[in-house]
Amino acid sequence: MNVISKENPDPVSLKEEIERLKQERDAIILAHNYQIPEVQDIADFIGDSLELARKAATLDNDVIVFCGVDFMAETAAILSPDKTVLLPAAEANCPMADMITAGELRVLKERFPDAAVVCYVNTTAEVKAESDICCTSSNAVKVVESLEEDRVIFVPDRNLGSYVARFTDKEILPWEGFCFVHDRITTLDVEEARRQHPDAEVLVHPECRAEVIDLADEVYSTSGMIKHVCTGPGKEYIIGTEIGILHRMKKDCPDKECYPLSPQAICTTMKKTDLSRVYNSLESLTPRIVVPEETADRARKAITRMLEVR
User: How confident is the model at residue 8 (pLDDT cuts 50, 70, 90)?
Assistant: First the structure.
């Protein structure tokens, strides 16, 4: 067995030890598309929020190591209550998920009793427990259209809510939350990127502001972007989301050139996970994410209902 130096860990030794511990613990590593390259490279499965949720619901492994942010690991723990779910970077929170509380949502439900509640998967377990159904950026429109109600409380992302409103006749009541990474992308960023790469197609995430979406060629979730780039006829693409996705695009679509719409599109909490933390987490089986049973049972209904939407 290799000895890992905590002061200056060797990446090769870390990878070898992670592989050893995975076998020993019967563990699987899930990573979001925004994770750092080294973490993506040691993951067993990489995807967006919907893909990761679906994967977490079907795993047979005893241990799930979630390389992402807190709400993702919570979702995995809710879907697999008998599994040990680990979040290597315990402080990797999602700022947008913290922009609404269960108490605030209960007030909204009292104000609009005839409305269905759709919560973006980027929310806490407590908020999910107060919701009728969850959604992700890749299925938000389908989720809203699947509802019988004509009025929808949509939390917490105002930009995604605004995007969904373009494709439905339902009344969307959005909360004023936002993803700081996507919300700060501007029309000036789009104009500058097009100036530098005039032949490139602009793809943006639906968490972007409406005026940015209006200037884009296509709007996709992260996995939707990857599929479009890999299968599309174009050779150059400007990518309007967190820059971590560029690593996967380079691996999955090596014949395409992809440029960041904004080099400042960095989610600092997504970057908190590194190889050392993955190793330490597997070795100690901490930090473990556990959702209280009563909250998990209620939240599971909203998540499962989302997963049933096709």
Answer: low
Look at residue 2 in the predicted model and tell me its pLDDT: 43
Whether 97-178+296-307 and 11-93+270-293 are alike in CATH topology: the answer is: yes
d(CA 128, CA 72): 12
- Answer whether 237's CB lies under 8 Å from 270's CB: no
179 is in an annotated binding site: yes
Is the domain covering 11-93+270-293 a CATH 3.40.50.300 domain?
A: no
pTM for the model? 0.93
Mean pLDDT of the chain: 95
The annotation status of 61 as a binding-site residue, yes or no, is no
**How many angstroms separate the CA atoms of 169 and 212, rounded?**
22
Which residues have CB under 8 Å from 164's CB, separation 6+? 140, 141, 144, 154, 172, 206
What is the pLDDT confidence band of residue 49, given thresholds at 50, 70 and 90?
confident
d(CA 93, CA 268) in angstroms, rounded, equals: 10
> What is the domain partition of the chain in residue ranges?
11-93+270-293, 97-178+296-307, 185-260
* Helices of type H across 62-145: 70-79, 102-111, 125-129, 140-145
CATH 3.40.50.10800 fits 185-260, yes or no: yes
pLDDT per position as a tens digit, 135-186: 999 999 999 999 999 999 999 999 999 999 999 999 999 999 999 999 999 9
230 is in an annotated binding site: no
Task: Please give the structure tokens belonging to residue 97.
Answer: 């998920």
In what helix (H) or strand (E) does residue 189 lie, and over which residues does it extend?
helix 187-196
- Consult the annotation and say whether 137 binds a ligand: yes
- Measure the CA–CA gap between 48 and 34, rounded to whole angstroms: 9
Q: Is 94 annotated as a binding residue?
A: yes
Superfamily of domain 97-178+296-307: NadA-like (3.40.50.10800)
| Residue 32 assigned as binding residue | yes
Q: Is the pLDDT of residue 72 over 70?
A: yes
